[in-house]
Structures are given as structure tokens and as C-alpha cells.
Model the fold of this input.
Amino acid sequence: MKQIILARRYAKALFAVGKEDGKYEEYNEALQGLSEVFASDVGLADSLTNPLYPLDVRSKVMEGVVASMGVDKIMGNFLSLLVEKKRADVLPDIAEEFQIMVDEEKNISHGTVVSAVELSEKLQTKVQATLEKLTGKTVELTTSVDPSIIGGIIARVGDLELDGSIRTQLASLKDSIKGRE
Done:
């Protein structure tokens, strides 16, 4: 279960410290890496979050993780605090929220483009440039193919959705014809 509000509080606190020290990108790399390890190594995640293990054992495990990562003292203290407060299970959510804050700081938005066929590199670049012009942000695109849209594209960046698919145009035409009956 995601704990977004709690994760956002922790991420916001760490981000504020990281921004002040100019190390928020370094902290982001550490959090993203640890989040990936959490997802892939169930044993590590269990040893940090399972209440059956004594708190001092969980703390020692986190100390080992911090030492192997080679992070600075502030990040090490942050990770140890998560174990101490029994919040290590929120770490993947904190990493996700922290990434959102870093992207916001760098003026980056993530978008998706769905097309009926694979888009060429040239067309992807053109769509990306158009979305960047519309949003005023740097846009990192993820593309996918969905033959059910028949043709055209559907582009989404944040709250902005541009639907130029033939499927939607046909549905609009159908509705307009029904309205005349």
C-alpha cells in the first residue's frame, strides 16, 4: 500500500536539505538505487522492515547498506532515521516523491505518446518539441503502440491530453450524427 502523504513529507524534508547543500541530485541517485534494490532483493527489504527482527538488528543492516553505498552523513542519517522510526517500508514511495521534486526543480515533465504504429525518431522529436512548446517544460517522452486507435496519436503530459486519434474522431462523428436524428 502506498503511503504518499508520509512519503512526501520525508521526501520534502530531505529535498530541502539537499537543495540547500546542492546535493539533491546525489540524494536522488541514492534513493532511486536503494528503491531498485528494495524491489529486487526481497530479503534486504524484509530485514529492514520486518518487526520480528529487533530494531538494533535492522539498524545494523541499514548501517551496512549505508556503508556499501558510500553516501554522505546526512543521507546516512536519513536512512537510519527511517529504520529507527519504523518507516523503511515507505522508502520506495519516498524515492518516487523525491524524483517528482527533482523533476519539478529541473523543469522536467514526463509524457506519453500512444500511436497506432511505431513513430520514427524524427516524428518523436517533432512531437516532443511541440509538447515542450505547449508546456514550457522539458518533456521526457515514453512511446507505446496501440493499434486500436486506428491512426493518429494521443499525447499526455501532466494534465494536458491531446487526442488526435482517428478512433476519437470517428466517435465524435458518430455522436454528431446521432444528435441530428
User: Anything to note?
Assistant: Residues 15 and 24 are 6 Å apart (CA to CA). The first strand starts at residue 108 and ends at 115. The mean pLDDT is 94. Residues 107-180 form a domain with the Glutaredoxin fold (CATH 3.40.30).
